[in-house]
Each structure stands twice: as structure tokens, then as C-alpha cells.
Design goal:
Elements: E1 3-9, E2 12-18, H1 28-42, E3 49-54, E4 58-60, H2 75-82, H3 84-91, E5 97-101, E6 104-106, H4 108-114, E7 118-122, E8 126-128, H5 142-150, H6 152-161, E9 165-166, H7 167-173, E10 178-180, H8 185-197, H9 201-214, H10 219-233, H11 237-247
Parallel strand pairs: 2-3, 3-5, 4-6, 5-7, 6-8, 7-10
Antiparallel strand pairs: 1-2, 8-9
Helix pairs in contact: 1-3, 5-6, 9-10
Amino acid sequence: MPGVKRERDGNVGVLTLDEPASLNAMTPDLLGDLARAIAEMTGDPQVRALVLTGAGRGFCSGQNLKAAQVLGDDIAAGVMKYYWPTFKAMRECRVPIVVAVNGVAAGGGFSLAMAGDMIVAARSARFIQVFSRIALVPDLGSTWLLPRLIGRQRALELMMTNEPLSADQAKEWGLVREVFDDAELHGGALELARRLADGPTRALVATRRLIDESEHASYADQFRREIEIQADIRQSADALEGRNAFLEKRAAVFTGR
């Protein structure tokens, strides 16, 4: 059945957008299944990181225009009902998410890739905003996420010109962490996800939350907020293990608790 394929690789959950005939174009059904897949995978305490990728020749080609009618006459209400829960699930996921972009990430697919924590890409990957080509504005969080990742001027350049961004250029601009030969993408994404999964995932996710909150906070407010989170996180089992391992001069073994 089309939708999102779920797999496990040790303590890493692998989610694959699995509608390759449309280059995994977004529909309410596909994104709804992605939200369910994230909940199912992270409901297992043994899963400590996720990889999100696409089947076939592309990661996600953006909105499936034939399915857009499902959103109804009130587009804003439809998008918030059918799409926002999935993006929210990614931004608030209890474990880190590595997005492995194979082929094209266009329009809303570009937005989806940025909703994860780190992006790795196949050498053949291309990122394209696409919206102004059809006289629309970027959506699904692009105008919030992209300037924060690559800066205002570069974000405007991509959004206004619709020029595709290659994987290598995306890495140079700071959008992508690492570029792999196409055949090596899956293994490279898993290696990074395993590294994160073996880390203090509770602290990693709290760090993500602080970074997101900092966009709207003053320096003084963020200074205090960091200490508040720190006071809570330092009571965790992983924080105790980290301190003991440091004192005992050994590698820490984290459990995500």
C-alpha cells in the first residue's frame, strides 16, 4: 500500500515516503501516515533516532495538486488541519531526525526536509523552492526555516529565482551537513542517526527546543531559559552517567533517560 514504509535498524527507525510514481508528492493521506509513523516509531523507547527519506528517484516533489481539493475552500484551515500536525510532530519529536534527501526536494518537499534536525543528501539531490514560478509564496514553514539555515539574502535568491540548489552548493551554504554518492546515502544517513541515537537523546532534543525558542527570546530571557532547562536535565540518568564517565575517564553509555 502507498504511504510511509516503517523499518527498524537497531535503535534507529527508518521512515520512507513510499509513493515513488509521484516522486512522493504530498497529500493529506501521505502526511497523515507520516505523522502516525513518527508516533508509532517513537512510542518504542528503544528507538533513539529517526531517518526520513523518499523511495525512488526523489525525496518529495511538493504538493500533489490533484489532492489539494481535499483541503477545502479555506486553504489555511485545510493545511493547518492536514499538514501542520506532521510538521509539528517532526519539530517536537522526542528523538533526533536525520533527513536523507535523494533526488528532488521541491516546494513543500523542501519545507519537509528542513523540518528535521539534520539534512544529508545524495550527490544527485536538488533543492528548489518553485513557488514563484506559479505566482505563489513559499509555504509550509519555508520562510521561517530557510533564512535561519542559510541567511536572508540566499533564501530570497532561491525563493525569487527558482534556481535549483545542488547538493554540493547546499552543503557549502550550510543547508546540508554531508553529501554522499547516491549509492552511499542510506548508509551515511544511518551512520549519523546511529551516532545521535547513541548520544544523550533527551539532552539533544532539549537543545533543539532551546534553539527554536531562541528565535523569539531576548538574550537575557534565553540565558535564564538555558539554566532552567539545565537544572531539569542535569537530574537525568544520562547526565549522571556523563559526569561519572568523565570522572572515571571512560566512554559514557547513554540510554536516553
